Amino acid sequence: MKSSIADKYGQMINRIGEYVHSNLAEPISLEVLAKEVGVSKYHLNRLFHAGTGLKLGEFIQRRRMEHAYHLLAEQRVSVLDAALSVGYDSHSSFSRAFSKLFSVEPGKVKSGCTPKFALPKLVKTNERPTLSPEILELPMKKLVGLYGHGFEKQSFFMLAQQLYHQLSTQLNLPEGFDFKQQQLIGVALDSPWRGEQSKSRFFAGVDLSASDLCEHHNLSELSEYVWTQGRWARFEHAGPYNTIWQTILSIYANWVIPNNFELKNCSIVQHYLNNVNITEPADLRTHIYIPLDD
To answer: Which residues, in sequence order, are CB contacts of 259 under 8 Å at separation 6+?
Structure first.
């Protein structure tokens, strides 16, 4: 697939994701989505499955239930209100669908008897792509950088650009970062699909152990993030930063869940290997680290 076509399809999948998240409480049909992005409904399903490893109907169902789980875990709404917020008008039908994906009744999530973060299991398991990450035992690392919040257009990309520009200014790096000398590492601290996307937190940092920044600059005004030691699965994302969520979705759906891996938390660490200002979008590479429970 040529890079321009791949980028077009990636942007199309982004638009689908935006539409679904904005209409969780409304009926969503393939016909409406196909019209939204300008393709046939048959091509739409094939396109989405190729990009994420999920059928579109599965994706819509998972996003609805993930959002409902978040509302219940935060104990902000009743089970019925959670059902209504994701398009169900029946307590019983919502509870059946919820229990099928999470293997727990929504009332138990509401009462605080389950973790605040859980991944929905797969209902269908056919035609899943094979993923083979590196499993690494990593030491603890201290990152310095800046915190922000805001998931926009299916990505933390715009926020990350702002934070890294501010970070390079505070570190007195007028030419920006040298990707060979400094490791730029971002951390998505929240799942933007669970709550309000504008409040999703992100950390834009630099690995001190991989640079000499601490020897030449005052870091007192910067924040710190501790990348904990332990087992991590490392995947590689190829392509634009604003399609990283598609790779992460595929990792969850096609590797974490089918293999019954337990995760420490929902934070996703991302190591950016190329400078976006001088690298073609199709040539960008990002290492994605998923925290595995010891």
So the answer is: none
